[in-house]
């Protein structure tokens, strides 16, 4: 079978960021001639700055500025030489000061991202393993990628979940030497902390456990000598099983990053040969001089005065927020505050409103946070004054409900997205409309003619097809074979349908669209844990159907109101179902509502291409062949026509139980070898019910008796086909005997016989389904790129799959 085209993560991020840029909240430019830290000029307006990561304001300290300028005049703008050969004159003094701060040797790197790339592959040996907190910074996760090529096991746990961490340790401890747990000290989006003291206790329980902390957001404003949150929790003593990454930029006020550890031998190895340390340029003289000046402040009592000033402002801002109904996602003592908005469109609206009031804030958006956990990230620095904080909170209290109203959401819905306690707040959205919403849990409650008038003729989801699916996927023994069906019809006051669709609620494999190598590894685990990495999903359509599951009357003047109602009822349905993921499937690329989906918190995911054969006007096989391109004609002659006479073809409506068993085995052959679209195997009962349904038939291939070497002839291929209203012929899936498939081109023969059968029955088109588009195109099919829109409660499953070695 042909390969499936998988989603490109970078394309997804580009689409999300481009949308935010169009909204005017991302990729902005400062227009200041002189920066003060307190304000920032954007689009011609001076805004109070609540987005800095220079929490202590040292980037504007005159001592650091003078040191940097003096270094440039004396040593130039850079020292263009690798540190492997020679370091410039200021390095030694700066390193010595920072080592004194930590009480241990340090390694200085150009920035923290390069620091991770230098340190992690050197510190982690081939016989070790890594466990990542799933919210650890992207730069750490990126640096770990190289370990997978060396065969180092990489696992992931949910954020700060110590029980899950201990389970992973128990799984790994007899297989590896050291187990490295990697986490942030202070997490950059929500401002929450790693449970350092609890982790140290776990380290004593399991001596193999080592820790790698990225504490760049905890630097300077916490800890002895401003060495950060982690060092503060460790009471200034760095154990041998801890590697610590800090920063010389952000709050430190200069540029660069550092690694500190108490293991002298490991320090030497990292400094001697740590990737970018050997091959990259060193910090510029001005950066080193500024860092040295900042280190002087950190080594003096002044650092505690600065910390206390900032702490006072943090406490004051917390007190202000405590008196509001704003959804602060994590209340703690860090300078990072996150106000949840839920949907990206609400976040865009809120940020623009605050900028209009004179405040600059950051937007927290995918992939830094799950797409439905969009919010406004506020940071407090020593530059901020109490009256500005008061004014910001007042502006937020005024504009937040207006942003919710503008974007058709409620405080309760936002809190639900962040799994926060729902207070006594309005959770009903008023939409002034005369539209009627009909919601049903069975197709039998909807008029047959009404449904088929808008969604008949597609795949297998006409009225009769859905009634069949309801009968099949209910009262089964296994949870993956029991689906709940939900139907929506939205009509105007005259009864005219504006929108129609259906959802199924069921168990999916999280790796359904993952690379084959990932699914193969998961399937090994599923031999012991059948439902490993499986989740309840609410999906447009079903895993049995494909095509345009959403009907929308684009000519109707009330279509936008219909869409609003659709999203509101869908969100309620998702909440009631307790689904981990909501999937809107099978839209063509560049569809007209793509931006609406993005604004509502959906991420586009590339699906396998869909293939449709809608040229069935030919009358003879010769006419069919002549309709193909010259290359496809050669392919047909050599790979299809030359094998036709080797088969006996039967069209069977009501197969015996023995034949159903044979067909089911052929189906399982294909299912068990096709991990490109990794789903659960359908129940055998499906095939029995097909055999008794008038709309299903089976195209069966047998090798001629004089060719088949077996003592008892059996089918070598079967296509399971649904007849939809005389409009669409739908070969829903396939079964093959792989012992003969390559020698006799069984797959291609089944495709041709399916097209031929559809023409005989005078159908208008053949829905050839997903994947194998190269083969289907050669037989004249039209290939349509498809995309799904996914909204997950969190990014854990996606990020976990990213840790699995893909080969």
Automatic annotation (TrEMBL):
<dbReference type="InterPro" id="IPR004839">
    <property type="entry name" value="Aminotransferase_I/II_large"/>
</dbReference>
<dbReference type="InterPro" id="IPR016181">
    <property type="entry name" value="Acyl_CoA_acyltransferase"/>
</dbReference>
<keyword id="KW-0808">Transferase</keyword>
<dbReference type="Pfam" id="PF13480">
    <property type="entry name" value="Acetyltransf_6"/>
</dbReference>
<dbReference type="GO" id="GO:0008483">
    <property type="term" value="F:transaminase activity"/>
</dbReference>
<dbReference type="InterPro" id="IPR015424">
    <property type="entry name" value="PyrdxlP-dep_Trfase"/>
</dbReference>
<keyword id="KW-0032">Aminotransferase</keyword>
<dbReference type="InterPro" id="IPR038740">
    <property type="entry name" value="BioF2-like_GNAT_dom"/>
</dbReference>
<dbReference type="GO" id="GO:0030170">
    <property type="term" value="F:pyridoxal phosphate binding"/>
</dbReference>
<protein>
    <submittedName>
        <fullName>Aminotransferase class I/II-fold pyridoxal phosphate-dependent enzyme</fullName>
    </submittedName>
</protein>
<dbReference type="InterPro" id="IPR015421">
    <property type="entry name" value="PyrdxlP-dep_Trfase_major"/>
</dbReference>
<dbReference type="InterPro" id="IPR050087">
    <property type="entry name" value="AON_synthase_class-II"/>
</dbReference>
<dbReference type="InterPro" id="IPR015422">
    <property type="entry name" value="PyrdxlP-dep_Trfase_small"/>
</dbReference>
<feature type="domain" description="BioF2-like acetyltransferase">
    <location>
        <begin position="633"/>
        <end position="776"/>
    </location>
</feature>
<feature type="domain" description="Aminotransferase class I/classII large">
    <location>
        <begin position="67"/>
        <end position="395"/>
    </location>
</feature>
<dbReference type="Pfam" id="PF00155">
    <property type="entry name" value="Aminotran_1_2"/>
</dbReference>
